[in-house]
């Protein structure tokens, strides 16, 4: 087969192209979108169906295993989806190398921070003493 | 004389199109949800886990006029982003690119988001749960 490309064989085998990555970013955006869709419909329906949104009701609701688990998945899925989406915005609009790096670092801190706070709160309610 | 050749883009002379509005709104609503929405989600969870006092501080914000504007804005953003995300998935499959189809789906997304937002709040206020 004639080689029309300038890429070396190993580059073509890896198939990553000029972006230095494959379709992982794109694919994770879709995977988390599907997760968000299912989990947010459940979350929205739950907010409608809860008898009230006061502390006792909400804390007791979150403490249930079948609420704590999807709620933790919701935090993970939306935070990862957000991280991917905001990353693209930063790459599109923040052109200076230093500012872009700083923005990407802050974005990652924010995403991890959201996940840490959410998971801690959910686990504390689900595993800790009642009426924590 | 009218020309069939495409006009080059111009920085200040352009016209809003539904497809363009949906694209811009997808990004704007995504950022509102991802930054404000997730921060408030984490605050809500942490307040619930911390105790009634911390939760009442969240609640004071939630039922304030600013809070209501935020919740209505975020719920509309959620439905707008969700529907235009589904439109993206259809386009990922290679469908819906014809000019009239893309325009129609863009208009449907914007209309659908408003209707679903209204439905959500109607169910919230008049549904089984509302206090």
Outline the structure in words.
The complex is a heterodimer of chains A (132) and B (131). Chain A has 132 residues and is an all-alpha fold. Helix content of chain A is 77%, strand content 0%. Chain A contains 5 helices and no strands. In chain A, helix 2 packs across helix 4, helix 3 packs across helix 5 and helix 4 packs antiparallel against helix 5. Chain A is elongated. The termini of chain A are far apart. By secondary structure, chain B is mainly α. Chain B has one domain: 3 helical TM bundles of succinate and fumarate reductases. Chain B has 4 helices and no strands. In chain B, helix 3 runs antiparallel to helix 4. At the A-B interface, helix 2, helix 3, helix 4 and helix 5 of A face helix 1, helix 2, helix 3 and helix 4 of B.
Strand content of chain B: under 5%
Structural class of chain B: mainly alpha
Helix run count of chain B? 4
Number of strands of chain A: 0
Order of helices and strands of chain B: HHHH
Strand content of chain A: under 5%
CATH class of chain B: Mainly Alpha
Structure at a glance:
By secondary structure, chain A is mainly alpha-helical.
Topology (SSEs and partners):
The complex is a heterodimer of chains A (132) and B (131).
Chain A: H1 9-14, H2 24-49, H3 55-63, H4 65-93, H5 97-127
Helix pairs in contact in A: 2-4, 3-5, 4-5
Chain B: H1 18-50, H2 52-62, H3 65-92, H4 99-126
């Amino acid at each position: 087969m004639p080689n029309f490309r300038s890429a070396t064989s190993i580059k073509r085998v890896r198939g990553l192209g000029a972006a230095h990555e494959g379709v992982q970013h794109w694919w994770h955006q879709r995977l988390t979108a599907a997760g968000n869709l299912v989990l947010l419909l459940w979350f929205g329906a739950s907010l409608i169906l809860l008898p009230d949104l006061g502390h006792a009701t909400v804390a007791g609701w979150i403490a249930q295993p079948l609420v704590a688990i999807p709620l933790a998945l919701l935090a993970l899925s939306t935070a990862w989806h957000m991280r991917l989406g905001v990353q693209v915005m930063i790459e599109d609009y923040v052109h200076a190398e230093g500012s872009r790096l700083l923005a990407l670092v802050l974005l990652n801190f924010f995403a991890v921070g959201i996940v840490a706070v959410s998971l801690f709160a959910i686990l504390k309610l689900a595993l800790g003493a009642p009426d924590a | 004389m009218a020309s069939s050749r495409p006009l080059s883009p111009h920085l200040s002379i352009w016209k809003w199109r539904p497809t363009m509005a949906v694209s811009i709104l997808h990004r704007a609503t995504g950022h509102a949800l991802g930054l404000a929405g997730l921060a408030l989600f984490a605050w809500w969870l942490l307040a619930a886990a911390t105790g009634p006092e911390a939760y009442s501080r969240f609640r004071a914000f939630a039922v304030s006029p600013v809070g209501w504007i935020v919740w209505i804005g975020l719920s509309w953003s959620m439905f707008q982003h969700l529907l235009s995300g589904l439109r993206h998935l259809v386009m990922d499959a290679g469908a819906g690119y014809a000019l009239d189809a893309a325009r129609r789906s863009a208009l449907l997304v914007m209309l659908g988001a408003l209707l679903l937002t209204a439905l959500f709040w109607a169910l919230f206020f008049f549904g089984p749960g509302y206090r």
